[in-house]
Specification:
Layout (H helix, E strand, L loop, with lengths): L1 E9 L6 E4 L1 H11 L4 E7 L4 E6 L3 H14 L18 H10 L2 E7 L2 E2 L6 E6 L6 E9 L1
Antiparallel strand pairs: 1-8, 2-7, 3-5, 3-8, 4-7, 5-6
The structure holds zinc ion.
């Protein structure tokens, strides 16, 4: 069995941002020379997510609107977590619903997606460096 492990770093200029990282993951799969296997991609932070969905601008605005309605950033006093002196309780909640990781099958050396599937990094508490782990295993 072969494996490769990589760490990607993201630093967004806004608190909330969705980034298509499919190309970066494809490059890692190519470097791995793995033909049949699986690729795990997970956020290493509890205020950001990895998820799969459509790369469609309207949908991304819908995600943002929906998440801000479920867990608005302000007023920060509405969350007990923020009593610790932090202000990111909303980002922890957004991360929980959007997920920690995704796993994609590798078939014939390529990410084996369904139609329209793309991989996204979801940042909910940006303005600082955040890491994403990518591990490819197989043969
Ligand atoms: Zn926190």
């Amino acid at each position: 069995m072969k494996s490769i492990t990589k760490y990607l770093t993201f630093h967004t200029e806004k608190r909330f941002k969705l980034i298509n990282i499919t190309q970066q993951i494809e490059e890692i799969v190519q470097q791995s020379n793995i033909n049949e296997g699986i690729c795990l991609i997970n956020s290493m932070h509890i205020t950001s997510s990895i998820f799969i969905n459509d790369d469609e601008k309207g949908l991304h605005l819908d995600f943002e609107k929906w998440l801000q309605k479920l867990a608005p950033h302000l007023p920060i006093e509405q969350y007990l977590h923020n009593d610790t002196g932090e202000d990111n309780a909303d980002a922890h909640l957004k991360r929980q619903i959007m997920g920690r990781e995704t796993i994609v099958a590798i078939t014939g050396g390529k990410l084996d997606f369904g139609p329209w599937e793309q991989i996204f990094y979801g940042e909910f508490d940006g303005l600082r460096n955040k890491k994403v782990l990518v591990k490819v295993i197989g043969e």
